[in-house]
Amino acid sequence: MVHQLQACNPPLGPQPPNPAFYSPKQQTLQMKEKVFSLSGDDFTVKTVEGTEICKCKGKVMSISDKKKFTDIQGNEIFTLSNKLLSIHKSFHAEAPGKADFEVKGHFSLLSSKSSVHFTNAADGQQVELEVKGDWFDRSATITYGGRPVAQIQRSFMNYRQIFGDKQTYYVLVAPNVDLSMIAGVCICLDEKENEK
């Protein structure tokens, strides 16, 4: 696992710089999923220190499998939905009055590959992030111009997690990278792999 990630300058992400979603120092996010939730896939995204960043609520029985991300006060940040007509599983995040982003799946024989596209709120530049994962050991790296901006680790579901109704993801995120967007990308990757 990458232990030290370089800061992104200007800040990187679709949301306007906001203290709730950006940090001047490297953060490790902890995301918990309710495995058997009746309302869909529910996640709480927080730092390992316990600071809550955002929440994700899934909508069960939805054709586009929408997932709504809110801040801690319940205000919508963005809604993720499946792109139904794509060849490889892809997602679109729509944000009310803010920048959107898109996660596109790509064919790969032995690993998971995706790309993330958005207009960077800090400088107006078009950005493409590359996502490469090895789902045999449940890990992935998100890079920008070849430089890692996030590292995802997830343990295989164990007995305790099954009966405790939770799975946990840990995501190391570089300074000045939108934490809510990275959380959304992680959930897209999980959806893509679970479909297989």
TrEMBL record:
**Annotated InterPro entries:** LOR (IPR007612), LOR_sf (IPR038595), Tubby-like_C (IPR025659)
- Which branch of life, at top level? Eukaryota
Q: Which family does it belong to?
A: Belongs to the LOR family.
- Protein name in UniProt: Tubby C-terminal domain-containing protein
